[in-house]
User: Fold this.
Amino acid sequence: MEAYPDLHLDITMTDAEFDIVEARFDAGVRLGEVLEQDMLAVPVSSAQRHCAVASPKYLATRAAPLHSQDLTGHVCIGWRPRPDAAPYRGEFTENGRDFDVAVDPALSTYDLGLMIRTACAGAGITFGMVETFQPYLTNGKLVPLLEDFCPPFDGFYLYYPKRHRQPLKLRVLIDHVRTHR
Assistant:
């Protein structure tokens, strides 16, 4: 920003999926697996991984699941991207086949902080990206589960529509991402 003092950015954070062109945004950030085909994209992160986690306190009272199908016998904490959305389904891979497991969460929330605090308190198993849980995995408050079923997948991308003339602020952002990734 120091190099472009007259450039003003407006950054909107949301988990809602929408058409950035229709909403008049210059660009967005999204996981590679859900990018629209007609968009250009620049990687902004390394590969990501989904995981299931629980606290040692929870695992002291219940055996750790050995297979993703075992999750249906556990207390689970659900996350949803917005209040009116269904809870996220745990995403797994076995023998090269991707699948997801729907659980009936005892608690669902769209507040990641609440989801993490509840899992750390021993209330159940929850799902998300390793990056989300990393500080709690590092300090031992959470334990990863089902790691053999959670391979890496494409990370996040800055994506934008194909245009003959890109606004200066978008060109600057793309160059910055390519240089500092």
Notes: The chain has four helices and ten strands.
